[in-house]
Amino acid sequence: MHSFTYQVPTEVVFGADTHLQAAQYVRKYGGSRVLVIYGGGSAVRSGLLDRVCEGLRDDGLTVETLGGVQPNPRVALVREGVQKAQAMQADFILAVGGGSVIDTAKAVAHGAANPGLDVWNDIWLQPANLKKSMAVGAVLTIPAAGSETSDSAVLTDGDSGMKRGLNTQLNRPVFAILDPKLPATLPAFQLGCGVTDIMMHTLDRYFNPDMDNQLTDELAEALLRVVIDNGLKVLKDPENQQAMSEILWAGSLSHNGLTGLGGRKDFAPHQLGHALGGMFDKAHGATLAAIWGSWARYTCKGDANVGRFARYARNVWHLDGEAMGDMELALGGIAATESYFQALGMPTCLEELVGRTLDGETLAELAYQCSYSGTRTIGTFMVLNQDDMLAIYTAANGRRKLSFEQ
Ligand code: NZQ
Ligand code: ZN
Questions:
Q1: What are phi and psi of 157, to 5 degrees?
Q2: CATH number at residue 44
Q3: Residue nearest to atom 38 of ligand 1 (CA)
Q4: Has residue 273 been placed in a domain?
Q5: Which of 304, 352, 301, 351 is nearest to 331 (CA)?
Q6: 3-state secondary structure of 37
Q7: 194 lines ligand 1 (CB under 6 A)
Q8: Could you report the per-residue pLDDT of 245-298, keeping only the tens digit for each?
């Protein structure tokens, strides 16, 4: 087990109707002038935004709003938010939405607390400049990105199509309200994306070169089993609050660091997915489902990696190891995962993600983007260079036949 520090200071407030307590928690963390950030309209249509803002105003807080955050959130709206936060002298940023809204709130907080620094050029691309931020709280509406407790935030620069993450403790919200009633209005596709992303946050930690972390590995396997079990239940019935509660809590735990402690997290599929998200503006979870199987088959080489995939097949998918060799088991686990993604309504190749197969030039451009113009490798489970990335994108290009048999 490698050395680690684990500090997740976010206060999690979990339960039905907890969104009605937002004002109380904003006050608790020192907020009096609040910029509320929301997305493209779902929180308006459901009445959630009004209920939250009314609660804040009834408590005597000053409130302004900024809407219009889109999935794969853009830097341009963040800059607008920074101006608005500064103009109203905000001391608290409250996100009402999903990962895109929460990441926008985090970025606005960084920008507003650092006048003179441009959020993209001076903070996102030069993270060492970020020394302080402002308090952010979250009312979560979709179990997916885990941004509500994570140390991460992801933005897209609309001009260049570059999608980049920023990791810092300053990204951890001070509180996160997890109300299992709120995701009931999600379209099935978004639920499928969310369940996929939750699985991927643990898979991208579980597949790493350190294979002697018993507690971490078993926590990871348990989380995956619970998400797999309840993912199809919420898809079938988003009003199923028991299943939604499991998914909602798993979403936060899957990306706050717990399921990878002591290991060197990999996150190559996420990096491959970000290049797809930046180029084609597709939902994050769908980009991960489209690439994961091809990444897995590419990295399933050598005794250690094959053994890891075989363990995954046994402990997560309950495939029977007695009659099967490690490689057979490993490939069975990969196929089971892809079939499950399909059952969630997710694409498992680029053709399904984008609507066509990609030409060689586009595949090469994806590898170029993912390798930051050939300047970096990704992953730890297997370190991947630009050529490896191209090989994985190429393998993911066309359709494969799969069926879900759970
Ligand atoms: O914009 P509105 O109208 O609210 O609609 C959203 C959006 O279209 C809709 N939605 C959310 N809650 C809803 C709802 N519709 C009906 N009822 C509800 N209760 O869902 C759509 C997707 O929302 P979004 O916030 O984009 O989803 P998600 O939470 O998956 O966030 C994705 C973003 O987070 C980043 C991704 O890259 C992507 O940009 N990530 C952030 C991470 C982090 N900060 O730790 C880690 C992740 O790996 C990820 O990269
Ligand atoms: Zn993710």
A1: -90, 110
A2: 3.40.50.1970
A3: 72
A4: yes
A5: 301
A6: strand
A7: yes
A8: 999 999 999 999 999 999 999 999 999 999 999 999 999 999 999 999 999 999
CB 76 within 8 Å of CB 119: no
* Ligand 2 centre distance from Cα of residue 190 (Å): 13
Give the ligand whose atoms come closest to the C-alpha of residue 47.
1
Q: Show the tokens assigned to 9.
A: 């200071």
State if residue 147 touches ligand 1 by the CB under 6 angstroms criterion. yes
Among 146, 163, 182, the domain boundary falls at 182
Residue 402 has pLDDT above 80, yes or no: no
Atom 29, ligand 1: residue with shortest CA distance: 99
227 occurs within a structural domain: yes
Closest residue by CA, ligand 1 atom 20: 190
Give the number of the atom of ligand 1 that is nearest the alpha carbon of residue 71: 26
Q: Which residue has a Cα nearest atom 15 of ligand 1?
A: 186
Mutate to test the pocket of ligand 1, among 147, 148, 196, 276 (most ligand atoms within 8 A of CB): 147
Residue 273 Cβ contacting ligand 1 at under 6 Å: no
Same domain, 200 and 160: no
Answer whether residue 1 is part of any domain: no
Q: Could you tell me the CATH number of the domain that includes residue 376? A: 1.20.1090.10
Residues 224 and 216 sit within 8 Å (Cβ to Cβ): no
204 and 141 housed in the same domain: no
Is 402 within the bounds of a domain? no
* Overall number of domains in the chain: 2
Cross-sheet strand order for the sheet of 33-38: 11-14, 175-178, 136-140, 92-97, 33-38, 62-66
Whether the CB of 145 sits within 6 Å of ligand 1: yes
Give the structural domain span for 363: 188-395
Place 161 in a pLDDT band, splitting at 50, 70 and 90. Answer: confident
Q: Is the pTM of this model over 0.90?
A: yes
**What is the whole-number distance in angstroms between the Cα of residue 81 and the centre of ligand 1?**
18
- Cα(200)–Cα(223) distance, integer angstroms: 11
